[in-house]
Amino acid sequence: MNGLKGIGGNVYNGTLGIMSLMAPFFIGMALAEERKVDALAAGLLSVAAFMTVTPYSVGEAYAVGANWLGGANIISGIIIGLVVAEMFTFIVRRNWVIRLPDSVPASVSRSFSALIPGFIILSIMGIIAWALANYGSNFHQIIMDTISTPLASLGSVVGWAYVLFVPLLWFFGIHGSLALTALDSGIMTPWALENIAIYQQFGSVDAALEAGKTFHVWAKPMLDSYIFLGGSGATLGLIIAIFLASRRADYRQVAKLALPSGIFQINEPILFGLPIIMNPVMFIPFILVQPILAAITLIAYYLGIIPPITNIAPWTMPTGLGAFFNTNGSVAALLVALFNLGVATLIYLPFVVVANKAQNAIEQEESEEEIANALKF
Known about the structure:
By secondary structure, the chain is mainly alpha-helical. Helix content is 70%, strand content 0%.
């Protein structure tokens, strides 16, 4: 088992352990591509800029601390990627570059065209790093102190905001998870990475707690495991409720089509097919089901029934399995996830019945009063 942990630790160090180093590269490259300038050069310069402002000392050793490269520092990486890409665009558009004759191969010309922008950008970053070092600090630490740490102290606020607003945005046709990706990738995913780092360091949750360490409750995989069951609004529960309570052929057909993707946490077929979006009958359960599941999950966590998140399984993991793998094999986590799915199904059941009655009344061209009566529980 220790050998497997060692292998897993090495894989972690080479992937999630350098998340903050990868962020500036991909963000800088994507923004540069949007600005129609050399995306690869901007991405590489973003990584170079990140390392330029990173302290190269751990105690008396000349080395880069792993704490600057992991998920806890990802906001710093995002900022550097955005800033460097904009600086690179600014310089290139003013033609402050070396132009070689057309006879020179494109790959060589491309390399030379990035020399002056790279010199300017990295010189500025070097001056910033030098100035901050004279004051006993560094760029990453300032970002952590001014942005990351205050946000971390708002853990429950961030979590509840995400749980409430993702389905609300979806109801009006806005991709909630994408709209709030800053909370996801910028805050809750780094919390998960911090949990994993603590677990890797101490080998178990109990050992970490005994050492005085704390785990983030609102790590992103927690939401995927216990709340977003089948996607935003826990719509896998709605699909099951339709199979249990609906006699309408169209509802059941949509549920059949949506089930395969719903099992893997993708719910666009049910959102647009039923539809849920702009459907007043489904507004109440779609908005309320996630806060209810979040409350159940938090109660289970604080009662010690389920352990904290100590792994990041793919968010497309089926309900139950995601919780099992995200907690490194907790059967209790799997059972709580399945319990939450049952709760979601019960929440949706009466609304499926009402929606069927209302649809039948509309198709029979009944009066507005009769349709209103059909909407009553």
